[in-house]
C-alpha cells in the first residue's frame, strides 16, 4: 500500500487578464501550498479495476471523482494495466477554493507513477494533469508557483516563506462558474501582481505580502454571496489584519509571519465558527522528495 499526501493551496494573487476563445479565462496567479492536507493510500488490485473509497460522504467515488479520472488518464498515457484501490482520508474542505480535489488527483498521478515504475518526470505528470483540471498541474508540484494560461502553465520557485495562514471555511456553496460569469472587463488587468508577490516573498518582506494579495474574483463572489462579505468584515474586525479569499471562495484567510499570533487568532475565530485551521506554508513535492 502506497501513501501520498495532498496539500491544500491558497491563492496569494489571482489576476484575470481576459476571456479566452475557448471559453476559459486567462489568469495569472501566485499559489502556495499549506500544510492542511488530505491523505491517500493506493493499494494494487490484481483484477485491473480502479476503485475508490472516501471518509467524506460529500465526495463521489465513481468516474466523477478527479482521482478516478487521474488513474484512467495515467493508464492511457503509460499503458499501465494494473488495478488500484484509492482510499481517501478527507481533511481539506470540499468546494472551498483550496484545490482539494485537484490536489488529490495530483497525488494519484504521483503515486501511480511510483507504483508502476513508469518513471514520468514531474513535468510530464503536470502535462498529464492538465487533461484532468486546470489546478492539477500546479498541484503536481506544490510549493510556491505562478500559474498562467487557464492555470496549466506553471513556473515554480524554491522559496518556503516562514508564513502562517489562518483559514476559515464557512458552510456556503459558491458556484465557480457563476463567479467567472459575473466578471466584467473592469475586473481584467494587463498588469498582474504575481512577479511583485514572488519578489516580496523571496526577499522576506512578509509584512508587505498581505498588502500585495489580490483576488480579481472577490468582487463578484462577495456580491453574489453577501453573507460571505459580512463574515469577512467581522473577521477583519477581530483580526485587525487584512482578510483575503482563496480562489472563487468561500474560504477566507489571514496571513501572519508569527505563529503565536496565528494561534491567538485561531482561538478567537473558533468562537464564531467551527471550520478554522492554522496552517503554515510548505514547499513543493520535488523539494520534499529531495530531502527524504
Automatic annotation (TrEMBL):
Residues 197-270 form the GHMP kinase C-terminal domain. The active site is at 9, 135. It comes from the Bacteria. Pathway: Isoprenoid biosynthesis; isopentenyl diphosphate biosynthesis via DXP pathway; isopentenyl diphosphate from 1-deoxy-D-xylulose 5-phosphate: step 3/6. Keywords: ATP-binding, Isoprene biosynthesis, Kinase, Nucleotide-binding, Transferase. It catalyses: 4-CDP-2-C-methyl-D-erythritol + ATP = 4-CDP-2-C-methyl-D-erythritol 2-phosphate + ADP + H(+). ATP binds at residues 93-103. InterPro entries: GHMP_kinase_C_dom, GHMP_kinase_C_sf, GHMP_kinase_N_dom, IspE, Ribosomal_Su5_D2-typ_SF, Ribsml_uS5_D2-typ_fold_subgr. Gene3D superfamilies: 3.30.230.10, GHMP kinase, C-terminal domain. Catalyzes the phosphorylation of the position 2 hydroxy group of 4-diphosphocytidyl-2C-methyl-D-erythritol. This is 4-diphosphocytidyl-2-C-methyl-D-erythritol kinase. It is an enzyme of class 2 (transferase). It comes from Alicyclobacillus vulcanalis. HAMAP family: IspE. Belongs to the GHMP kinase family. IspE subfamily. Pfam families: GHMP_kinases_C, GHMP_kinases_N. Its EC number is 2.7.1.148. NCBIfam families: ispE. GO terms for molecular function: 4-(cytidine 5'-diphospho)-2-C-methyl-D-erythritol kinase activity; ATP binding. GO terms for biological process: isopentenyl diphosphate biosynthetic process, methylerythritol 4-phosphate pathway; terpenoid biosynthetic process. Residues 65-143 form the GHMP kinase N-terminal domain.
Amino acid at each position: 500500500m502506497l501513501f501520498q499526501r495532498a496539500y491544500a493551496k491558497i491563492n496569494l494573487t489571482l489576476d484575470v487578464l481576459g476571456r479566452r476563445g475557448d471559453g476559459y479565462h486567462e489568469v495569472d496567479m501566485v499559489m502556495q501550498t499549506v500544510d492542511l492536507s488530505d491523505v491517500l493510500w493506493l493499494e494494487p488490485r490484481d483484477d485491473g479495476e480502479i476503485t475508490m473509497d472516501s471518509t467524506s460522504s460529500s465526495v463521489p467515488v465513481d468516474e466523477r471523482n478527479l482521482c478516478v479520472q487521474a488513474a484512467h488518464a495515467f493508464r492511457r498515457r503509460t499503458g499501465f494495466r494494473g488495478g488500484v484501490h484509492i482510499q481517501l482520508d478527507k481533511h481539506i474542505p470540499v468546494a472551498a477554493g483550496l484545490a482539494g480535489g485537484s490536489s488529490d488527483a495530483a497525488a494519484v498521478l504521483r503515486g501511480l507513477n511510483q507504483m508502476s515504475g513508469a518513471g514520468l518526470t514531474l513535468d510530464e505528470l503536470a502535462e498529464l494533469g492538465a487533461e484532468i483540471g486546470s489546478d492539477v498541474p500546479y498541484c503536481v508540484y506544490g510549493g510556491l508557483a505562478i500559474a498562467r494560461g487557464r492555470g496549466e502553465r506553471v513556473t515554480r520557485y524554491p522559496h518556503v516563506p516562514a508564513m502562517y495562514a489562518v483559514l476559515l471555511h464557512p458552510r456556503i456553496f459558491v458556484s465557480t462558474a457563476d463567479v467567472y460569469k459575473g466578471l466584467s472587463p473592469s475586473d481584467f488587468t494587463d498588469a498582474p501582481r504575481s512577479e511583485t508577490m514572488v519578489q516580496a516573498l523571496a526577499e522576506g518582506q512578509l509584512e508587505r505580502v498581505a498588502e500585495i494579495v489580490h483576488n480579481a474574483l472577490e468582487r463578484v463572489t462577495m456580491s453574489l454571496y453577501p453573507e460571505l462579505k459580512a463574515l469577512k468584515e467581522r473577521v477583519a474586525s477581530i483580526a485587525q489584519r487584512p482578510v483575503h479569499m482563496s480562489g472563487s471562495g468561500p474560504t477566507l484567510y489571514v496571513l501572519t509571519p508569527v505563529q503565536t499570533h496565528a494561534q491567538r487568532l485561531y482561538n478567537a475565530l473558533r468562537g464564531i465558527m467551527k471550520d478554522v485551521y492554522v496552517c503554515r506554508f510548505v514547499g513543493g513535492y520535488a523539494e520534499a522528495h529531495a530531502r527524504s
